What we know:
InterPro entries: CbiX-like, Sirohydro_Cobaltochel/CbiX
Pfam family, one: CbiX
Protein name: Sirohydrochlorin ferrochelatase
Keywords: Lyase, Metal-binding
Order of helices and strands: EHEHEHHEHEHEHEH
GO molecular function: lyase activity; metal ion binding
Amino acid sequence: MNPRPTLLAVAHGTRSAAGQRQIRDLCAAVARRRPDLDVRLSYADVQQPRIGAVVPGVRDAVVVPLLLSAGYHVRVDIGDAVRGTGIPVTAPLGPDDVLLESLTRHLAAPARGGEQKAKPDEADAVVLAAAGSSDPAWRESVHALAARIPGGAHVAYAAGAESRVADVVADLRRRGARRIAIAAYLLADGLFYRTLHRAGADTVTPPLCLDPAVAGLVLRRYESALLTSAPAGM
């Protein structure tokens, strides 16, 4: 009997127990949707097992980066791990319309306790908060995503020296904004996500991986790889 094909998910890794649980729950949701797949979770940084340690033990696999950009971890950590194996690597989860729709939906959703969250057409300002990267293509994709949020959004980063989230929020306050919503372009809870709650905005959207639609996006990435380079036996 042939072993099940493997969807090898690769997350960044985090020290946050909540973030670790959220990523495991995302992979569990993927596995429930596709019981014919062996869904395995590995990491590019921080946590174990690392992608390089898992790849030698899998067959008929597709690597799906649970990342929002094709940055260093995709090019180097994942690229080095699969080099010479023939295992295909899909595009990362972002940018994608599923994530844009999730951000927009949560910006408009009621907050806990009945209080209404800021909506894109009601807030004085919406800030799209991303992790930060020196990759020009990644930064360009974040700005393009911000322009597609209804009403537009200001881009800010949770790390790096430029356009820090707290600084952008403070500047918007000085310019007269009274109600500011942060659209968190982050997949899971962790250090970066928690800084958004200390940035001075009125609301922050939840981590993207909590949206059930993201499990479907992971599977679409997997299936897209099969259309172009299916491993032997699939």
